[in-house]
Recover the amino acids of this structure.
């Protein structure tokens, strides 16, 4: 079977590499680093602050101000080709002095490499990092989820709204350490606010843009569209 | 029977208010018998309970024996709402809307610990029992209940349907929510039934 045109075959950029196998006896710390980490340090210098290798996986702590540049280079450079953004998430630690971390999981299918980028957000600083949506379109919902759960703003995201909680949710950001497990409001108040939402009142931007293409729109939806709502595209 | 003889009058009078008459009783039985043996379920499966529900509907346990093989994925043609799984707050207006779209007569089964009480999900996102949103006829315990458990609940519901009386005016009460709060139950009642119990009383409300 031949691959369709333009398809990226895993490992295609690195034909001499051994066949992938599950590694055995991986050291907790100090294994061989992903070669991309050294390439990043050589290319971006002081913007790369630290490289850790934990359980055979390489984490690079980078400067948030240059994150988009770094992800763009990792995506475009023929020696890197990180073409798949697997995850965007954040970590907050119980230790109040420890900074919050925003984590990007990047994967290079042609080289079969995995790289974790981290940006540290010290306590007290504004919780904002650049969005990588312009490079990896798949970051859209992952960044929205991260915003929803942690309140981290992704600058440059086209449509940064809540995604898991409903948009009128006012109790805060559930995965933050200062968020009470059962929420801030009483159960009756939570239920009242949830039931006040009209399940049919809102459509996603995608649905709106699809509907815009058709003539037979309901009048109410046509009115809302006249307000100038557009998609991020 | 509604026929009584007043002392001293010497004639038999008929008082329909005093007791239900024989024909209505038999009509009750006929209607209830047909209803209870063709309860079309509206499956509202949100979690692992829905897997057990599917097992109940499949060939080994075979809901068709109860006249329930016809899954009604439209609430307009459904008789019994089976909520199988946890309901997050975001889904609360949806399940209420579905319940309101179901025509009378209608019943509901709360299947499993999560639908009945929130179960182990005593957190910010999960409704602590769907009885705070819609009226529930039968609660099926279990996490998840085995198909036998659900069938037992269905048979309990069938018994309940068989005991219904057409003359009962409170029977088809639509239970409109309170216009001010938008809630079915009083707010303090909701807080009371949502109080932490069991192991979750040992959890702190905040980590700070």
């Amino acid at each position: 079977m031949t691959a369709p045109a333009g398809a990226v075959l895993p490992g295609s950029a690195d034909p001499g590499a051994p066949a992938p196998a599950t590694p055995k006896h991986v050291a907790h710390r100090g294994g061989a680093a992903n070669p991309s980490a050294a390439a990043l340090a050589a290319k971006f210098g002081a913007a790369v602050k630290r490289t850790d290798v934990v359980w055979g996986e390489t984490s690079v702590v980078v400067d948030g101000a240059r994150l988009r540049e770094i992800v763009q280079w990792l995506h475009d450079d023929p020696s890197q080709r990180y073409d798949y953004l697997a995850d965007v998430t954040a970590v907050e630690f119980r230790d109040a002095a420890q900074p919050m971390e925003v984590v990007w999981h990047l994967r290079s299918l042609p080289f079969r490499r995995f790289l974790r980028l981290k940006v540290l957000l010290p306590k007290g600083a504004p919780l904002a990092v650049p969005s990588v949506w312009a490079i990896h379109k798949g970051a859209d919902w992952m960044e929205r989820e991260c915003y929803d759960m942690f309140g981290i703003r992704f600058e440059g995201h086209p449509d940064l709204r809540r995604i898991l909680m409903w948009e009128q949710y006012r109790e805060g950001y559930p995965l933050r350490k200062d968020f009470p497990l059962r929420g801030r409001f009483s159960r009756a108040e939570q239920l009242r606010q949830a039931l006040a939402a009209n399940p049919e009142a809102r459509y996603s931007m995608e649905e709106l843009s699809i509907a815009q293409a058709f003539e037979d729109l309901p009048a109410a939806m046509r009115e809302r569209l006249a307000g100038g709502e557009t998609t991020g595209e | 029977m509604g026929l009584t003889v007043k002392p001293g009058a010497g004639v038999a009078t008929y008082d329909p208010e005093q007791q239900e008459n024989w024909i209505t009783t038999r009509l009750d039985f006929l209607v209830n018998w047909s209803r209870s043996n063709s309860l079309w379920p509206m499956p509202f499966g949100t979690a692992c309970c829905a897997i057990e529900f599917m097992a109940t509907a499949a060939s080994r346990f075979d809901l068709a024996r109860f006249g329930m093989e016809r899954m009604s994925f439209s609430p307009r043609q459904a008789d019994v709402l089976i909520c199988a799984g946890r309901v997050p707050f975001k889904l609360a207006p949806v399940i209420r809307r579905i319940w309101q779209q179901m025509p009378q007569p209608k019943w509901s089964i709360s299947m499993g610990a999560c639908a009945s009480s929130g179960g182990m999900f005593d957190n910010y996102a999960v409704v602590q029992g769907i009885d705070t949103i819609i009226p529930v006829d039968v609660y099926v315990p279990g996490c998840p209940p085995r198909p036998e458990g659900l069938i037992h609940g269905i048979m309990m519901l069938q018994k309940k349907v068989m005991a219904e009386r057409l003359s009962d005016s409170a029977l088809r009460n639509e239970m409109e929510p309170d216009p001010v709060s938008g809630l079915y139950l009083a707010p303090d009642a909701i807080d009371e039934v949502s109080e932490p119990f069991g192991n979750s009383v040992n959890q702190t409300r905040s980590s700070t």
The two ends of chain B are 69 Å apart (CA to CA).
